[in-house]
Structures are given as structure tokens and as C-alpha cells.
Specification:
Length: 975
């Protein structure tokens, strides 16, 4: 108290004597501090300002002391120390320093308002801004007045008064343009952009943020650039230009981490988390949301905390954790009740209404909807009104009020007319579904609109995880409408078009890009950087696997999260900057007529998809198509029934239950999923091409039973991810210098050193029969290479030109990583020291496989679970077969569960013997001549498919290995 009084007296009366030198020194410190502040070096700026404050105090320069205190507080705000800044500014405001002009006092009021704005205390902020304007009443246009106009506008926009906000912002813009103050003009342009975006005026908003960014880039100030990058990214995201959104969010994240201000960091973290949430990657979404929440808790900002809690609740709902979702929403409501944030509160009420609908608490949902409606109408929140009608339509549907539901969805659809493309998709889908429930043909018109919107933005992002993830949200709707065409219009041909439009689209995109060689024009530096980032990600995954403590694992996961986003950003930078990629015309799904041309009179195609919980099934021959939709089986919806039966069949086989038990479960599944085949149509059919979907991806159809016979005994069977990728799969019988490269991964030891008969992924046991397997295979070929024992390393494998081999055979362990599919792969070696010398880790993952260049007719993965992986709606299985097809292999043989070492050796010997026999029959001199003349058409079922069937039939007759556990897991995928 005593020191405060002394300082006040000194400032009121000043100190006698000439302190010119000290003043000059202090002025120099301030000049240097301003420079540091502009460059984002806030800590150094604050230290210089503190030193200057002491010199001004010693000199008795009360004016410069006060103004430097204000600047120091502003720097503290930039550092995130807002509460400390508030204390300094309030104390400064209370002092009666005579030398301060009204302009000086107004600038202090503005600084206090800005501090309260950062704390999201908008009423307090507004009061101080108004006090500042009162002090400047009657003054001519000045930077001080424009600054107050700009700042006070945010307090109006945050509380829903956009008309008043824009009035202040446009006036500030006028003054700043008149004064040519670029820094301040950049800020007010950003504010106008935000107000217009909140009003749904997206086209009008974009020029303002672009002009703001241009000014920020001229000035080169990190803080201005951070704000401009973030908001431009948000603008791109709203337009569905996710590639550009990712790039600019990454730029913002780099700057905001550099600046270290938690107040500005949280928005970018939330929005990046939102990208992952939309793509279905909830693990990464949670990582970013939790980081944002931790930063928010440091600031005590109620609106920002509430916003992040709402996002966490959404992820909890996706994970079916409704209790945690409820808790998050309740905490968000507690925080938002402390603030004036009507938009956020209304959105929260809508979130809670949706949750209560899921819980079937309809009265609670209605109560939340009414609260949201009251706020939306009061403030004319058009975007919120659209969502309000959507949620109310959902509530009416759950209550069985279909007409009322339709009315609400119509209102939402009308309000979406001014939205960006991404904002129009949901309302169109909801209205289409509502019309369908009333059997109206308008459903198909609205569905086509939705498909147009979806297709217009589907490829506006690069990278498998993001492109497949964003599409997955809508892919199920394609299947749903396909089921409508079958049940309501009896048009299975239209259903086929839609089902194909929702299958393996990213794989088809990637294979089309490879076919057109669009990546071959990338410069060496770009390719090197891409490879380095990928290697760093692989290294972190290995380190996480070996982490010895939870703390170490957590730190590595944080590092991995940011590195993966950096990698995705780099892929999108390539996508945006490379004209061949950015303007690439991606292929349309295959036409029915093309598929029927692929099929001969002996082959049929069975394609499956799931529309919500209903099974959609198509049977196509070379001259016919039929379709059916199964909603339920017994008392259970079709999807749940089939999922459970597949699980039961797999367990029955894997646990080597009696063959009669296997066949009984197989018969139940056969009756459920194999159509009642028209005898006239199927009389000549001997081959089935199966395109599975959903849980059927993990079903070995060969093991289904009918009249005590396995399906493989009546039909040859092979698989495709979709019919549309068939033209993009490389043709077999390409010229190679060698026949076979076989790899035997025998150098793995189980935990107890004993040899395990089962190739357990968990134990990675030694594989003694793998050596016998590759040796017995190699005798069939005159030009072969064998890698075994010490020769089996990732580095050694990559040292070979793999495009030189017609057949690649891997008898080694595989690992399946459903959380990070790019990390699924083949375990070639545990010789970490040797591998690291060549920059490898002994794990050939799916990303690395896809980047290989192969000319193989067939890749055989004679290992555990190589046919497993992550299933993504709209993309299907993201597994190893996908990577080998993308790398150029014509076909891939994989396994659907952990296979037995000794029996697999026997099976493979059978397969190769039959394969070479069929190859001589199917591809003789005549066929080779036609191939040379480019007149040869490869049969859909060729020597490989025929050999696989023969090998399975031989195993069924084997005295020891006739159980399906030995032969059923192996399936053939491709051409």
C-alpha cells in the first residue's frame, strides 16, 4: 500500500532534474519492444517494456509510464496472461494521472475492454469501450475512435446483434482506409468477415478475409497472419475445399504454437479436431479436443470451454458413450450460463435435444428445442433456425408423426438455399428420406440433388484417411437410395449404379492417378520430403509400441498426432499446387453394361451392400440383373443377424468345431445371403464373383453350405472391392525377368522359445514350415529367388527390383492395425540394428506396399489375418490386398484368420501345382500370340482362380487337413 502511494505521488508531481538520458534509453527500449511484439516475440517484448517502465518511473515521466504500462498489459494479453493484464489495467484506470489526455484515457479503456473480450466477458468489455467512446466524443476521425469501433463490434456480434456490429465495423473500416493504417484495417476486415459468416452470407464474406490476409502478409506480423490463416481455413472448410482448409489450419497451428497464446490456439485445435471428427477418426479428434480443452481451462473462458465440451460430447455419442456425452453437455451449460453467448447456448440446446432423442426422452428433447427456438428467433440466427427445424423433424419422425416431420425438413431445406455446398447436403438428404417414408417420388429428386452436392466436393481433399473418411459420412445414403430403387421402383440397374458409386472410390481414384502417371512429374525435393515425413511417422509408431511408461507413450502420441497432420497437410499442398492433380478428372463408376460384358455365360456377380440395417443384394449375369432388400431376419434386423452369424461361423471354424456344426451355421448364412437362384438363369453358372460389403467382407463364402455341400464345391469364387476398379487393375501376363520371389520369415521367436503350430499374431512365433513352404514352391520355377533366414530384412527386399517378378510369395507374419491402417503390414525382420542402418524398421507397412511398383500376376500373403483390416463405409476394407492392387499386382491371395503353419505349406504346394497346370491350359501359344497383338481378353476367372478352387477341393478330400480352418481362410482378390 505504501509503495503504491509513493508511486502515485511521484507520477502526479514528477521528479526534479534532467533525466534526458534515461528517457532516451527507455524510448529505445520501447522501440525495440514494438519490433519484438510485431515479430511475435512477446516474452522479449514484455521484458523490454518492464525495463522501460522502471526508467520512466525513475524519470518521473508519468505519461510515458502509464502508456507503457498499458502496452505491457497488452503484451501480457498476447502471451495469454489476461487476468494479470486486467489487474494492471484496472489499477492504471483508477489512478488520476493529470497529464493523460482523453485520447490516452480512452486507449486504456480500450485495452481493458480487449482484456475482458478475451475473457469472454462481453458486457464488461462493451461498457469499457463505451466509456472510451464517450471520452472521444466530438473528436474527429482518428485511429483511437476506429479502434474502439472495431473492438466494440465484437461484443455485439458475440451477443447476436450483427446489425450493430457491422455498423461499427464498416465505420472503423472507413476511418482506417482514410488513415491508411494497414495493421488495423486487416483486423477490422477480419471482423467483418466473421460477422457475415455468422449471418450465413458466405459469398459476401470471402473477399474480406482475402483482403485481410493480403494485408497481413504485407505486414508479416505472425499474430495477424495466424488469425487470417485460421479464418481463411474456416472459409474453405465451409465451401467444401478441405484441401485448402487443411493447409491453412496447419499454417495457423504452426504460428499459434510459436506465439504460445492459449486464447488463440484453442480455435485452431478445435477446428483441426473437427476435420478428424468428420472423417471418422475419433482418436485424433479427441487428441486435439483434449489439447484445446486443457488450454481453455488455463483461460477460464466460458464460451470457448463450452464449445470444446460440446465437441467432446459429440465424439462420445459417436462412440455410444451417452453418459459421458450427458456429462459434457451439462458442464458446457454450466460454463455458458456465466456468459452472454446466445448463439453457443442455442447450439448447445440443439445438441442436448438430439441426445435426448437418441435416449428416447422426447419431452426433454422438446423442452431443449423450445429454448433454442426462443434464442434463434430473438436474434434471427438463420443457420440455427435451419438446424432447429432439422432436429424437430427428427423428433417428429421418432414420434411417428411423418407429415409433421416432412414439414420441418422442408423448412430446413428452404433455409439451406443460401448455405455453401457442404451446408446443403444434410437438408437435402433429410428431406429425401422424409419423402421416401411417405412413398413420394420427390425422394428421388432430392436424393439426386444430394448426390450432386456430395460429388462436387468428394475429391476436394487428398490422402486416403481424409478422403475416405469424409465420404464415409454420406456413402451409406447411396446404398439407402439404391434400396428405394429396388423396393419402390423395381429398378435394380439404378441400384447397381448407386452401390458402385459408394464402393472403393478412393482406391479407384488412386489407381486412376497411377494409370495417368500424375505423380511421376513431382520434383525430387517433394518426393524426398514426402518420404521423410512418412518414415518419421513409422518411427514414432515403433517407438510407441516399445514405450516403457504411460507418460512416455503419451508424449510420443502427441508428437505423432502433429506429425500425421503435417503429413496430411503436405499431401494436400501437393494436391493444390500440382495442376495435373488439382484438375484431375476422376473416373465415374462402371456402367452395368460394362460389367455384363466382363461376365461370360458361366459367370455371375453377387454384390452386397447395407442400407442402414437392411441387406441390399444384386445378382448380375451377362444378360440379366435382379435385386432384393432384406430388412430383417427372424426378430433381428438383417445387419445384426448377419454380423452375429458371421462371427459364429468364424469362431466355429477357427476353434475347429465338428464339421457338422460348421455346416449347420454355414447353411443358416447361405439361406440368408445367397439369393434363391433361378434354376434357368443359374443352370450354366459355375463361377461367382463376389463384391461384399460391411460385415460380409470377413466372410469366407467358400465355407457356406447348401445341401451338405460347401459353396466352393459348386462354384469357383473370387472377390473384388468393387466392380468399378476392375478396369484399373493391371492386366496379368506382363513381361518379367523372373518367375518367383519367395520370402520365408522364419526368424521370429515366441515368448517361451517354443514353436507354436498356430501363426499367432500376438506371439509372432517362429515359422519353421515357412522354409519348407518356399523351398517346395521354388522347385516349380526355373527363374526364382528365395529370401530366408538372415537374408529376410526389409532393406534386402527393397534392394530387389520387385517389378521383375511374376509371382511374389510372402510366408511371414502380418500385423493388422485397425486404428492406423497405414501401419498394417508384413513383419519381415526383428533385426532392428541391421534394419536401422538402412533407414528401415523390418515392417513393410501398407503405405510402403502401395508405393512399390509391381508387375506381378499374383501376390500371395501366406500369413495370419492378411485379409483383415479396417472397414470404412464407402471405401470397404482398408487392408493389405488394397495396397498390393494399388502397387500394380493383378491379384492378391490373403487369409481371413490366423492360419496353421504346417497345413498352409501343404495347401500352397497344392495351389502352385494346380496353378501351373491351369496356366499352361489357359495361356498357351495362341493366347500369348493374341496378347502380343493386344487382342487377347483375359478371362474374369483365370488360371489362378481355378487353381485356388482345385486346391481347396483337394484339401476337403485330405485325410488330415479337410476341416475349413485349413483351407477356407484363403481368398483371391483381383483380376
Amino acid at each position: 500500500m505504501r509503495s503504491t502511494v509513493i508511486i502515485t505521488l511521484l507520477l502526479l508531481i514528477g521528479l526534479p532534474g534532467n533525466m534526458y538520458a534515461q528517457t532516451t534509453a527507455a524510448d529505445s527500449l520501447i522501440s525495440l519492444g514494438d519490433e519484438k511484439f510485431s515479430n511475435g516475440n512477446y516474452t522479449e517484448a514484455a521484458e523490454l517494456e518492464k525495463e522501460a517502465i522502471q526508467l520512466y518511473l525513475q524519470n518521473g515521466d508519468s505519461l510515458k509510464w502509464a502508456m507503457t504500462q498499458k502496452d505491457y498489459a497488452t503484451t501480457l494479453i498476447a502471451m495469454g496472461a489476461v487476468k494479470e493484464a486486467v489487474d494492471i489495467l484496472l489499477e492504471l484506470d483508477e489512478r488520476k494521472i493529470k497529464v493523460l489526455t482523453n485520447e490516452d484515457k480512452a486507449s486504456i479503456k480500450k485495452a481493458i475492454g480487449y482484456a475482458y473480450r478475451n475473457l469472454e466477458q462481453y458486457e464488461a468489455a462493451q461498457n469499457y469501450y463505451l466509456e472510451g467512446l464517450e471520452l472521444l466524443k466530438g473528436s474527429q476521425d482518428s485511429s483511437d475512435i476506429a479502434g474502439l469501433y472495431n473492438n466494440i463490434s465484437y461484443t455485439f456480434s458475440e451477443t447476436g446483434n450483427y446489425e450493430q456490429a457491422l455498423e461499427y465495423q464498416y465505420e472503423a473500416k472507413r476511418i482506417y482506409e482514410k488513415l491508411d493504417e494497414k495493421r488495423s484495417l486487416s483486423r477490422v476486415l477480419n471482423g467483418i468477415f466473421l460477422s457475415l459468416m455468422d449471418l450465413g452470407l458466405y459469398e459476401q464474406a470471402e473477399p474480406y478475409i482475402r483482403q485481410s490476409l493480403a494485408l497481413s502478409e504485407q505486414l508479416g506480423e505472425p499474430r495477424l497472419l495466424d488469425i487470417a490463416y485460421h479464418n481463411l481455413a474456416w472459409n474453405f472448410e465451409n465451401q467444401g475445399k478441405r484441401d485448402s482448409a487443411i493447409i491453412y489450419y496447419r499454417k495457423s497451428l504452426e504460428l499459434t504454437r510459436q506465439l504460445g497464446n492459449p486464447y488463440e490456439m484453442t480455435q485452431t485445435l478445435n477446428n483441426i479436431g473437427g476435420l478428424y471428427e468428420e472423417s471418422g477418426d475419433y482418436e485424433n479428434a479427441l487428441a486435439y479436443y483434449n489439447e484445446a480443452l486443457e488450454a481453455n481451462y488455463q483461460t477460464d473462458r466460458p464460451v470457448s470451454i463450452g464449445h470444446t465440451l460440446r465437441r467432446l460430447a459429440r465424439v462420445a455419442i459417436q462412440n455410444n458413450d451417452l453418459d459421458n456425452a450427458t456429462t459434457f453437455y451439462e458442464e458446457a451449460q454450466n460454463w455458458l450460463s456465466q456468459a452472454q453467448a446466445p448463439r453457443d447456448l442455442a447450439m448447445l440446446y440443439l445438441d442436448q435435444a438430439e441426445l435426448e432423442i437418441i435416449k428416447e426422452h422426447h419431452q426433454e428433447a422438446k423442452r431443449h428445442l423450445n429454448k433454442a427456438e426462443e434464442i434463434a428467433r430473438k436474434h434471427n440466427f438463420k443457420g440455427i433456425q435451419s438446424r432447429l427445424h432439422t432436429v424437430r423433424g427428427q423428433l417428429y419422425y421418432e414420434q411417428g408423426k411423418l407429415r409433421e416431420s416432412l414439414g420441418e425438413y422442408r423448412k430446413a431445406y428452404r433455409l439451406s438455399a443460401d448455405e455453401t455446398v457442404t451446408g446443403k447436403i444434410g437438408p437435402a438428404i433429410n428431406l429425401a428420406r422424409s419423402y421416401h417414408r411417405l412413398q413420394s417420388d420427390s425422394a428421388f429428386i432430392l436424393a439426386d440433388q444430394a448426390f450432386t452436392f456430395i460429388d462436387s466436393v468428394r475429391t476436394n481433399v487428398a490422402g486416403l484417411s481424409f478422403r475416405s473418411g469424409f465420404f464415409r459420412e454420406h456413402a451409406g445414403f447411396y446404398n439407402e437410395v439404391a434400396s428405394w430403387y429396388i423396393t419402390q421402383k423395381n429398378q435394380p440397374e439404378k441400384a447397381f449404379d448407386l452401390i458402385e458409386a459408394a464402393k472403393a472410390r478412393v482406391l479407384m481414384d488412386e489407381m486412376a492417378e497411377t494409370q495417368q502417371k500424375v505423380y511421376e512429374n513431382l520434383d525430387e525435393a517433394t518426393l524426398i520430403k514426402k518420404q521423410q515425413l512418412a518414415k518419421q511417422i513409422d518411427r514414432l509408431h515403433r517407438q510407441i509400441e516399445q514405450a516403457k511408461s504411460k507418460q512416455q507413450r503419451s508424449a510420443l502420441q502427441d508428437e505423432l498426432k502433429d506429425l500425421e497432420f503435417e503429413y496430411q497437410t503436405f499431401l494436400n499442398e501437393i494436391h493444390v499446387s500440382n495442376p495435373a492433380l488439382h484438375n484431375f478428372e476422376y473416373p465415374r463408376p462402371i456402367a452395368l453394361e460394362e460389367v455384363q460384358d466382363m461376365l461370360n455365360r458361366n459367370s455371375a456377380l453377387l454384390e452386397y451392400a447395407f442400407a442402414e440395417n437392411s441387406l441390399v443384394r444384386l445378382l448380375i449375369t451377362n444378360n440379366s440383373i435382379s435385386g432384393s432388400v432384406t430388412d430383417s431376419l427372424g426378430q433381428t434386423d438383417a445387419k445384426s443377424f448377419i454380423t452375429e452369424k458371421i462371427k459364429h461361423l468364424r469362431e466355429t471354424i477357427i476353434h475347429k468345431k465338428q464339421v457338422d456344426s460348421v455346416k449347420k451355421v454355414g447353411e443358416e448364412l447361405h439361406a440368408s445371403i445367397i439369393p434363391d437362384l433361378n434354376q434357368q438363369i443359374m443352370a450354366d453358372i459355375s463361377n461367382l464373383l463376389i463384391i461384399p460389403g460391411g460385415p460380409l467382407i470377413f466372410l469366407p463364402f467358400e465355407a457356406l453350405s447348401n445341401t451338405d455341400r460347401y459353396l466352393i464345391e459348386d462354384f469357383g469364387i473370387k472377390y473384388l472391392p468393387s466392380a468399378s476398379i476392375y478396369p484399373f487393375i493391371k492386366e496379368p501376363h506382363r513381361t518379367t525377368n523372373f518367375d518367383l520371389l519367395a520370402v520365408a520369415g522364419s526368424g521370429f521367436e515366441g515368448g517361451d522359445g517354443l514353436v507354436s503350430e498356430s501363426r499367432s499374431e500376438a506371439s509372432f512365433a517362429s515359422l519353421p514350415s515357412a522354409l519348407l513352404e518356399v523351398d517346395s514352391i521354388s522347385v516349380h520355377f526355373s527363374k526364382s529367388k528365395i529370401l530366408k533366414n538372415e537374408d529376410v530384412t526389409e532393406a534386402t527386399l527393397k534392394s530387389h527390383d520387385l517389378s521383375d517378378f511374376r509371382y511374389l510369395h510372402f510366408a511371414t507374419h502380418a500385423s493388422v492395425n485397425e486404428e492406423s491402417p497405414s501401419q498394417s503390414g508384413l513383419l519381415l525382420s526383428k533385426k532392428a540394428d541391421v534394419e536401422s542402418l538402412f533407414g528401415e524398421d523390418g515392417h513393410l507397412n501398407s503405405r510402403e506396399i502401395a508405393e512399390l511398383r509391381l508387375n506381378a500376376d499374383l501376390v500371395i500373403l501366406s500369413a495370419c489375418n492378411t485379409g483383415m483390416g479396417k472397414v470404412v463405409t464407402g471405401e470397404g476394407l482398408i487392408g493389405l490386398q488394397r495396397s498390393f492392387l494399388a502397387a500394380g499386382s493383378s491379384s492378391v491371395m490373403v487369409s481371413l484368420w490366423s492360419v496353421f503353419d504346417r497345413s498352409t505349406s501343404v495347401f500352397m504346394a497344392e495351389f502352385y501345382e494346380h496353378m501351373l497346370t491351369h496356366q499352361e491350359e489357359d495361356y498357351g501359344l495362341w493366347e500369348q500370340t493374341m496378347q502380343w497383338l493386344e487382342w487377347h481378353e483375359h478371362p474374369l476367372f483365370d488360371y489362378k482362380a481355378n487353381a485356388l478352387r482345385d486346391a481347396k477341393l483337394a484339401m476337403i478330400d485330405h485325410p488330415y487337413y479337410n476341416h475349413p480352418v485349413y483351407w477356407a481362410p484363403f481368398i483371391l482378390v483381383g483380376k
